[in-house]
Design brief:
By secondary structure, this protein is α+β, with helices and mostly antiparallel strands. The chain folds into 2 domains: about 150 residues, Rossmann fold, CATH 3.40.50; about 100 residues, Bacterial fluorinating enzyme like (Elongation Factor Tu (Ef-tu), domain 3), CATH 2.40.30. Helix content is about 30%, strand content about 25%. The strands form 3 sheets. Strands 2-1-3-5-4-6 form a 6-stranded mixed sheet. α2 packs parallel to α5. The radius of gyration is 26 Å and the shape is elongated.
Amino acid sequence: MLIAFRALRKWPLTVTLVFSVLASALAAQTSAPPTVVFMTDFGVVDDSVALCKGVMYGIAPNLRIVDLTHQVPAFSISDGARFLFGASPYFPASTVFVGVVDPTVGSTRKAIVVKSKRGQFFVVPDNGLITMVANRDGIEGVRQITNPDWMIGAKVSSTFHGRDIFSPVGAHLARGDDWNQVGPELKELVRLDLHPATVDNRGLTGEVIALDGPFGNLVTNISSEDFLKLGYKRGDLLKVMIAGREYQMPFVRTFSDVPLKQPLLYIDSRGRASFALNQNSFAAAYDIRPPQPIFIPRKEQ
């Protein structure tokens, strides 16, 4: 009877320990895996992207790889910079971005790791790809990638640093390796020479900087804040000069606010003034290819 009583007294402790172990195991299973956001201009017609992912999984098997895009226009550092800028705010601190748009691969350009003040890491060539993120988020530190232990193989290819340098470094960072070991600190970065939109007494001068994927909408460098300084409200009709040609269109909320194939000015999902045709391509219809100048006059009082 005494033995049974002592066993009964220990039972609550046993149950508590069991539940504690189960809770810890469940937490381990449901915790977010380390994340790499991967962007290139490689396209997907060959095995380049898969090889890079294979390298990353070989170093960090529990890695989660998010494909930002592999359709950056070939060699377009400015488009790559724009995509990193647009995507990074939606990912948490400690996310690692591996960005490979590297038209001078194998040259004297440096391979680097940038840590932003948001706590995100960017593994990129030092060619301006980080410019827009750095301008917005600030930089905590920069290191040049020189440590061969963070690269793949005994011989690094002169033309495939995406596989041999950027991918393994991204995986090392994602699994928690000390980023101070990647190489020496750098003080200077290569930056793109960006030209912001300007507003004066006449109106706003800006630029078409890209096209919106397959839709042919014109992406600009004009923030909604700058555009609204001109005095327009939704529903207003305005005249715009794009690439030296005048267009008349309304400022509206969304595409279906105008008839099919008619032009419109709207604020896009990134907070920029943009131009479109309802269910048609503005770029194709008017043969516009960025970069092109834009001028929007102030609203007449």
